Prior knowledge:
Structural class: mainly alpha
Distance between the termini: 90 Å
Amino acid sequence: MTAGPAPAADQDESPEPVYSSVEHWVTLHFLPMYRRPLGGEFRWCPQWWRHAEAITRLTALWQSWEAMRLQPGTGTASWLRDHLDHQLPILLGRSGPFAQCSLDEHVEPRIAAADQPPPGWWDTGSVAPDAPDDEAAAEQP
């Protein structure tokens, strides 16, 4: 009986990423590769790392790029269609995370405020404090 080929030592190991961080991916891949005329329709902030939404979106793009670059055939095309083409207009758009910034000035994004709900508002199985009572509502003409 002949033994089959020995499994490759690194067959179960994930390949090393091309870029070690989102910062490296943005500066060495994203910015040089996906250029847009800035101002008007497309916005960018050189201090992109101060924008939490941008960090989240760029990290998602980087991690999905690292995974999909390894898929044979259409991996890159699928990444462009499913990830970059969706995220880029949001990330660089007029109402995106860099909307108030320019190439010369970073504007700190404002955080939306939220009021505290009244006590009991989220209690399950109870009627919301301002909701009409079903029986009282049924009695009214």
